[in-house]
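Sanity check record (used in CI):
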Amino acid sequence: MFRKLLPHWPLPRYRADAARSHHGVDGYQNLYPFKQPRFADLLRWNWQRWRMPAVAHRLQDIRRQAPDAAALAANRSRPSYTWIGHASGFIQLAGLNLLLDPVWSARASPLQWAGPRRLLPPALTLDELPAIDLVMITHNHYDHLDFHAVRQLARQTSGAPQFVVPLGVAPTLLRAGVPAGHIHQLDWWESFKLGGVEAVLTPAQHWSKRWVFGDRNRALWGGFAVRGDGLQLWYPGDTGYHPELFALVSKRIGPLDLALLPIGAYQPRWFLQAQHIDPAEAVQIFRIMKPRRALAVHWGTFALTDEALHQPPLDLAAELEKYGIAPADFAVPALGETFWLRPR
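Expected output for Metallo-beta-lactamase domain-containing protein:
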C-alpha cells in the first residue's frame, strides 16, 4: 500500500567517483561554494509565509496562446521551441521531437492533494503532442520530474522514448515503467546522441532531494546543451548564480543560438538565492553567455515561492532596460507560443 501511495519512493544508490571533484563522500556537490538549504531554513521561511499577506496572482497578465498542434505534429524539418509551462518545453530539432522537464500534474508534489498547485494548465496535453523521441530531465525535484507524466510517456503507443537524465535519477524512471535500456544517465559534461541530436549535461549550482530523508544530493542535477540542425540550445536547469560557472559553461559549449533562462521562483532571496537565479541574475547570465536569443522560462505556472506569478517578467523588463537589451533579444514567451529557429 505504501509503495502505491508513493510510487516515487525508490532511493538512488550513490557511488562516488574519487577522480571527480563534485563526487562527495555522502553525495554530489557543487563546483563553487553553496549554501545547502536546511530544514530550519524551511521552517523559518514557512513561518514568514504564514505571517505575510496573501499573494495576489494576476493570472490575466500572463499571456497565453493556443499552439497549433496540427502544425507541430506535421513538422519534422523546421527547428522549433514551444513553451508548455514552467520549465517544460517541446523542442523539434534534426527531425526529432524532444521534451524538456515534462511536468503535467496538478501539483508539483509527491501527493496530488497537497503541495504547490498548478495555477495555469499546460499549453498542450501529452496526448496532443506528436510521438516523443527523447526526454531530458534536469534533476529530480517535483517541478521538473513528474512521475505521472513519465509513466504516461513510457506508455506512448509508438513505444517509450529515450530518457537522458543526471546520475541517480534512473530509479524513479524505472519505477514509472521506463525500460532500463531507454534510460541514459550522465555525469557533468557527458553526452548522449540520438540521430542528429546531441544532449550534453552541464553543471549547475543546485541540489537534489525527492523524499523527506535518505536521498539528499544522491542524484545529480544540471542543465542541458542540445545540438542539432546547426543550432545549439541551452537550459541551465535550476541554478544559483556564480559568474565563473557560466563563463566555464560558455567556454565549453561554444556559440549559443537559444538560451532558455529561468526567471521565476526567487523570493525570498535569503532562502532561494543559492539555488534559484532571479531576473537580474538571468540578465547577467545572458550577458556572459551571449546567445543569439533568450527566452524566459521557469515561471507563470506553479506558485512555488513568495513572488506573485505575474511578477518575474516585470522585474526582467526593468533589468533589460537597465542594460539596454532589446526585449526581443530576451523575450518573454506566451504560454503555448512556438518559436521557429533559424540556423546560423
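The two ends are 54 Å apart (CA to CA). If this sentence no longer matches the regenerated C-alpha cells, the check is flagged for review.
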